[in-house]
Amino acid sequence: MMENKLAHSGSEKASKVILYIAVSLDGYIARVNGDVSWLDAYQNVDYGYADFVEEVGAVIMGSRTYEMIPSLGGWPYGNRKGFVVTGRKLRATDGIDIEFTSDLLPLIVRKAKRAAMGKAVYLVGGDELATSFVNQGLIDEMLLFIIPTLLGGGISLFRTVHACPTFRLVKIIPYKNCVVQLHYRK
């Protein structure tokens, strides 16, 4: 079994919510205007993303992240069910199993874990959603990719954190391009 693979027993309980995200040295995930082109110089390395996504059964994202999907060339998550947390009325992309929801986050997580059928639930991008999930204790693991760039401002990975969940570092993977993966588990 590869190091990056996650063990799951097949039950809803075994599913974990995992935040997999790149962050600058100074804690930002994007520039103030949402621009992430500063990551382009780091796209030529395999950070285990394909292996990670193979272990994912469902994805949860916010509406702004969902609206960026067309610029990525379409839904990058195959046949995995998507949950878009929003109060706005959005249009689903044809052929994709998407649920737009404004339910309470714990309910969304339960639905996503059922849909994931024992695999991981990928929490995709966004400072608001990541902060809400961490404040409600809903993130089980974090795979943070520290990019050796200082942005000096922008959109922080987390906004105001009210809860102080404890995570333990379970793995560090340095890459030749000076990116470092930090794998934390609650």
Structural class: alpha/beta
- CATH evolutionary superfamily: Dihydrofolate Reductase, subunit A
The CATH architecture assignment turns out to be 3-Layer(aba) Sandwich
Proportion of residues in helical segments: 10-25%
Strand content: 25-35%
The CATH topology corresponds to Dihydrofolate Reductase, subunit A
Trace the largest sheet across and list its strands.
5-4-3-6-1-7-10-9
**How do the helices and strands follow one another from N- to C-terminus?**
EEHEHEEHEHEEEE
Descriptors for this entry?
Dihydrofolate Reductase, subunit A, 186 residues, 29% strand, disordered N terminus, two-stranded antiparallel ribbon, globular, alpha/beta, eight-stranded mixed sheet, 4 helices
Short description:
The chain has about 190 residues and is α/β, with parallel strands linked by helices. It is about 15% helix and about 30% strand.
Task: List the SSEs and their pairings.
Blueprint: E1 17-24, E2 28-30, H1 49-54, E3 56-62, H2 63-67, E4 81-85, E5 98-101, H3 105-116, E6 120-124, H4 127-135, E7 141-147, E8 155-156, E9 168-174, E10 180-185
Parallel strand pairs: 1-6, 1-7, 3-4, 3-6, 4-5
Antiparallel strand pairs: 2-8, 7-10, 9-10
Overview of this protein structure:
The chain is built from four helices and ten strands; from the N terminus they run ββαβαββαβαββββ. It is globular, with a radius of gyration of 16 Å. With 186 residues, it is an alpha/beta fold. Helix content is 17%, strand content 29%. β9 and β10 (180-185) form a beta hairpin. It has helices spanning 49-54, 63-67, 105-116, 127-135, and strands spanning 17-24, 28-30, 56-62, 81-85, 98-101, 120-124, 141-147, 155-156, 168-174, 180-185. The protein has a single domain, classed as Dihydrofolate Reductase, subunit A (3-Layer(aba) Sandwich), CATH 3.40.430.10. The two termini are 22 Å apart. The strands form two sheets. The protein has an eight-stranded mixed β-sheet. It has a two-stranded antiparallel sheet with strand order 2-8.
